[in-house]
Design a protein that fits this description.
Distance between the termini: 21 Å
Structural class: mainly alpha
Helix content: over 70%
Number of domains: 1
Order of helices and strands: HEHHHHHHHHHE
Radius of gyration: 20 Å
């Protein structure tokens, strides 16, 4: 009986502490860097992008500026839309706006442009897989959502359906981006079908877990 009481006392006094900041920062910036690389891979594949990046690419082509600068500018504008929704950005939110855009431009400058269809498909699949890993890393760091994700969750908190808000926003940016000249194709469908299950699979494995404290 005494051993059971000791065990119960230990369980009662064991407290869950926030994850250490160091591992969270590593996951955040590794994830954001990989996210930029994933976008560059999908752009080079020329087989279609996810809805937001169709929009980014269309704007970049019309404005005659780099894709990375558009990603940064749109992210900053979307963050302004958080104000009436009373959303608070975190370090991850602000870092998302800056880091992803810079890495996209770097990746586009360094990655080759594949000509053979087989290599384009490899770039596309690699981009989707890397995107899933990146998303699980930076979301799992728990330092703030990306500006676009925060917009959707903010609308949901104001009483709108999260699924409906996400669908409406992504269809709007997809259609607008396509009209502006963004690339829509099989990659757009592959991303839509594959990214959800991929992130669902990877998130538990790549998220930073809380520490437990056992006071003496």
């Amino acid at each position: 009986m005494s051993s059971i009481l000791v065990a119960l006392r230990g369980t009662a006094t064991r407290r869950s502490l926030p994850p250490a900041l160091g591992p969270r920062l590593v996951r955040l910036y590794l994830g954001l860097g990989l996210f930029g690389v994933s976008l560059a891979l999908m752009v080079k594949a020329e087989l279609g992008l996810d809805p937001w990046d169709v929009f980014h690419q269309g704007l970049a082509r019309q404005a005659g500026i780099s894709l990375g600068l558009v990603v940064i500018a749109v992210g900053a504008i979307v963050m302004l839309l958080w104000i009436p929704l009373r959303q608070r950005p975190g370090l991850g939110t602000i870092s998302n706006v800056i880091v992803v855009g810079l890495v996209v431009d770097l990746g586009l400058a360094l990655l080759p442009r594949p000509r053979a269809l087989a290599w384009r498909v490899i770039f596309l699949i690699g981009g989707i897989v890397v995107n899933g890993i990146a998303t699980a890393l930076y979301v799992g760091a728990g330092l703030g959502p990306g500006p676009r994700d925060g917009l959707m969750t903010g609308l949901a908190q104001r009483g709108h359906s999260l699924g409906l808000a996400r669908t409406a926003i992504e269809l709007t940016v997809l259609a607008t981006g396509w009209l502006l000249g963004g690339t829509v194709g099989v990659g757009t469908v592959a991303y839509a079908v594959g990214i959800g299950p991929l992130v669902h699979l990877l998130m538990p494995r790549l998220s930073v877990r809380k520490r437990s404290s056992c006071p003496q």
